[in-house]
Design a protein that fits this description.
The protein has about 150 residues and is an alpha+beta fold. About 30% of the residues lie in helices and about 25% in strands. Strand 5 and strand 6 (about 115) form a beta hairpin. It starts with a strand and ends with a helix.
Amino acid sequence: MDDAAENVKEIKHHKQDSYCITRPAYRQGRKLTAVKVYTVNNESQHLYVYGVPKIDLRKELRQLCVKYGEVSRVAVVEDVKTEIFTQCFHVEYKRIQSARIAKRLLDTRSFYGGILHVCYAPESETVDQTRSKLSQRRRDILNRLGG
């Protein structure tokens, strides 16, 4: 199912936030970041990767994503607004922790001349995936509390 193309409408949480420039200098850090908070429901093992140059880089993107965990599939997302000469890919990881790491490390990374923008895509989850995500979070919290 790697060669499948998907149709997705543009959703507000897919847009990249602007960088925060109002932080005091001692709290800024080395690189500018956007301030965005994710809840368990916002996180997902599905990621949309924007900004990939339109030169058939599916295999290269898969190789890049596999570094952070086992990938179920990589598919081109059609009918989504992208910059000229770029395309969007849907990457599905087997584990949500792999997707968290990949999102953090791939976002704003240079890839074949394009700057990647990675966002979660919880709208692509099945009901079973959402159920397992929430139950896993519940187990993690109970483990941290010692119960």
